[in-house]
Design brief:
The protein is an alpha+beta fold and about 150 residues long. The chain has a single domain, classed as Alpha-Beta Plaits (2-Layer Sandwich). Helices cover about 25% and strands about 35% of the residues. Strands 1, 2, 3, 4, 5 and 6 form a six-stranded antiparallel β-sheet that branches.
Length: about 150
């Protein structure tokens, strides 16, 4: 899948710093990992609507989600071979928020996405770990709260 998140230093992404401030862990090889709570929503865009769906997910939807309590960020993935296949990962501060914030069912989201989406194929909440390679400082400091 193609990601709309650059694979650079994770410290440059504000929501990873937000998560790192609440759930940092040092692994056995001294790299740093962050446990995060994720809601994954799989969508199939209508024919000729994939670009419009991407714009809606990264624009108005993101603006809407920013007001949700515990929202920490999102990642939109498009399949390389089938651009209509989209997975939206939303990151949450607490597991209950990932499981219970059914943003894909909110009426405002339905109005936004229904002209663009053929079907929502699956929704699942996860606990995940994001890690930085040994020697990288991706989660060692919080750029939002320097100390």
């Amino acid at each position: 899948m193609q990601s709309q998140l650059a694979a650079g230093n994770l410290n440059e992404i504000p929501w990873t710093a937000k998560l790192a401030a609440t759930h940092p862990q040092t692994t056995s090889d001294n790299s740093v990992a962050v446990t995060t709570n994720i809601r994954a929503v799989w969508l199939i865009a209508k024919a000729d609507c994939a670009a419009g769906l991407a714009a809606a997910l990264n624009g108005p939807l993101l603006g809407f989600l920013r007001s949700a309590p515990g929202f920490a960020g999102s990642l939109v993935l498009h399949a390389h071979k089938e651009f209509r296949s989209v997975m939206v990962l939303t990151f949450w501060e607490q597991s209950a928020q990932a499981a219970q914030t059914r943003w894909e069912e909110f009426s405002a989201v339905q109005r936004l996405l229904s002209p663009l989406v053929d079907v929502c194929t699956r929704v699942q909440a996860y606990e995940g770990k994001m890690s930085a390679p040994n020697g990288r400082s991706a989660f060692r400091s919080n750029p939002m709260n320097p100390s």
